[in-house]
Design brief:
This protein has a three-stranded mixed beta sheet. It has a two-stranded antiparallel sheet with strand order 4-5. The chain is an alpha+beta fold and about 140 residues long. The chain has one domain: Heat Shock Protein 90, CATH 3.30.565. Strand 4 and strand 5 form a beta hairpin. The chain contains four helices and five strands, in the order αβαββααββ. The two termini are about 30 Å apart.
């Protein structure tokens, strides 16, 4: 499966649950294809699906009404890469605890390790990993 195909498959599962929330806040998604989007990737579909939903919800929470969330789909080596940029004011350090706490993620069905109040790696229990990088 290519990075683009993986994104499309996961988006098709996530979007029906988020569509009304995005419409209510008048936020649109702007998708672009980055380097390696047409290359095969080694990723766990269920894990990527769960992570995408969490990250989309967080981006929607932080972005300003009437703006866009920009996505760039690609791959790095044989790993799926998804860059997400919202147009929010940013988060203060104490806000990460609520959004990215182990308890919150468990409620959403994702297990993770915490590192400095932010999660960076998911366990290798599915033979794959997801790394979240905060810029």
């Amino acid at each position: 499966m290519t990075a683009n195909e993986l994104y499309e498959e996961c988006f098709a599962q996530v979007w029906p649950r988020l569509k009304s929330l995005f419409a209510e806040k008048e936020v649109v998604i702007n998708l672009a294809y980055g380097k390696g989007h047409d290359r095969a990737v080694d990723a766990d579909l269920a894990l990527v699906h769960r992570v995408m939903e969490i990250v989309f919800r967080c981006a929607l929470t932080q972005t300003l009404r009437g703006t866009e969330i920009k996505l760039v789909v690609g791959s790095i080596d044989s790993n799926f890469a998804l860059s997400i940029r919202d147009h929010g004011p940013g988060m203060e350090e104490h806000q990460y605890d609520e959004l990215y706490s182990a308890q919150k993620l468990r409620e959403l069905g994702v297990s993770c390790k915490l590192k400095s109040n932010k999660f960076s790696d998911f366990p290798q229990d599915h033979g794959t990993s997801v790394r979240i990088v905060f810029n």
